[in-house]
User: Fold this.
Amino acid sequence: MAIKVFIPTPLRPFADGASTVELDGRDVGGLLTALTARFPKLAKHLYQEDGELRNFVNVYVNAEDIRNLALRDTPLAPGDEVSIVPSIAGGAPDVDLSKEEIARYSRHLIMPEVTIDGQKRLKAGSVLLVGAGGLGSPMALYLAAAGVGRIGIIDFDVVDHSNLQRQILHGTADVGSAKLDSARRRLADINPHIQIDTHEVRLTSENALALFRDYDVIADGTDNFPTRYLVNDACVLLGKPNAYGSIFRFEGQASVFHHEGGPCYRCLYPEPPPPGLVPSCAEGGVLGILPGLIGVIQATEVVKILLGKGRSLAGRLLLYDALEMTFRELKLRRDPACPVCGENPTVTELIDYEAFCGVPGAQSSQETNREVFKMVEEQETALQDGQEAEVVFPTDIDVSTLAERMQAGGNGFVVLDVRDPHEIAICAIEGTTRIPMVEIPQRFEELDREKEIICHCKMGARSAQVAMFLAYQGFKNVKNVQGGILAWAREIDPEMPTY
Amino acid sequence: MAIYFSNAQIGLIRRHGAACYPNECCGFLLGATLGNDRVVHAVRPVSNEFDEARQTTRYLIEPKDVWEMEQDARAAGVDILGVYHSHPDHPARPSEFDRTHAWPSFSYLIVSIVNGRPREVYSWLLSESREEFLEERITVQESPMRAGREHSKWR
Assistant:
């Protein structure tokens, strides 16, 4: 007794694409059993775990719902037509505030811009913090306290003594343990009503889209250019707003990128600076309080975006100078020719950002040297005099080789420390010649051209520029110490204080 | 895997969402499937039949409306590709209720309406395991696409 069964559109892929099938069955129950026997993949979508039909699955015999007939026992006769008809339901999450939450957020709830509805919106919202460092710390603390329902944090670092001057998520007892552990502990203590997702990974082009997808807002607390471009591009590709902040010494900047039709980071900075030109905070230092202020500005923007209130920093770059205690504002415009968010984007998937930013390690040091060389060339055109043909490119030397050479002694080489005097006051290798990088162009003639010049700085970037400069000035045997004095402290002299 | 809309279609969905605020709106997405891509030919608003007091966080399309839409779509030579709905004052991310009630293979377009103004729009597909929603890329074209025309260009 063949009965015709109509399959609704969403289930057809599980029934070999058929819109109708003919099956045998005495009653509706028997017919459905025959249906799922023929197409086993249908079962999961028709039945709940307990075997009952899902409440949004409706079965009609001819024009009548079986709920008005005898349900599964509804008998079938030849010529009957059975239709599976979906009802379609859904909706926004039901967010309720408990009595404890209402007490906790009461100062929010009484403000007309927030109210219970706004607080629920914060609770329904989510933010992903890229980095649990200087900027990530104040953002996480305040966003947790404010009641943002889900806070994700990406970080793979461990807490170091040098972090504690500004990264207030972490304490002295946390040194040596994962930043995410102390972050989770601290945030759970501040607000047990929120969810904290920790992602202990390095953010890469491979994982960024999957990580970002689940969040409403991304907050960029990174300290390097490759990650900053990666965060920007991933936000644009996914259509997520990017609450941006960055800090250096006494200055900070903040904006909201890719929000309300505003520009993205690449509209502002289409290309990264040449490698080594802009020192990182580890190289150049940062006022410990500064990320507190910039991070709190970012957190404010996150809360405003989630609330849908106020005027965001989209289209504006806020510049803060702590020494002068001034705020300035620059108008930013979306660049129609932007390679990511422009009208004809050329970047339509995530790329290799290390290579894009020319970070050493992503390319051979020879290539990096050539780039630095080019930069020196551009900056020091006055000093050129057509010596390009004679340039002998510097090479790298590691700290253990350097230690052996220094121990063996001899006067065929000079170890040149190009750091500033206040850095040398913290730590230095004994027996080095010290000329700060900025004074090199005036003082390089003090160096003996016949000797091998081994340059070092804190981490290796500034000394690489100096080495290139010396090579360009005709020094034939120049080396750069890989990893700088930090590598020395790590591998040769663990007692040495570092910064 | 992408779903193609015209500016006008997305505009209609956003306006529908704003008009129904603070309640949720809902409607059908009609069109054609091309390989892994979907091309929307028309969007059809439909009445939210959920209990009126709960429409700020719920929508329901009655089986009779689905059934009629299936007939009309078949007559017009298109498929129901999925449905759209709004999340008043919530992000355009599927809720747990959306997930447990989702139909497989449907595109679930969600528009967030904040303070009565349309915000972001995302499209989602239920995973095979039914355990999560996967985002479906939305591409908005100047004018409505039609199956077949310049097909190779945007595959």
Q: What stands out?
A: Helices of chain B lie at 7-20, 63-76, 96-100. Chain B touches chain A through 47 residues (CB under 8 Å). Chain B has three helices and eight strands.
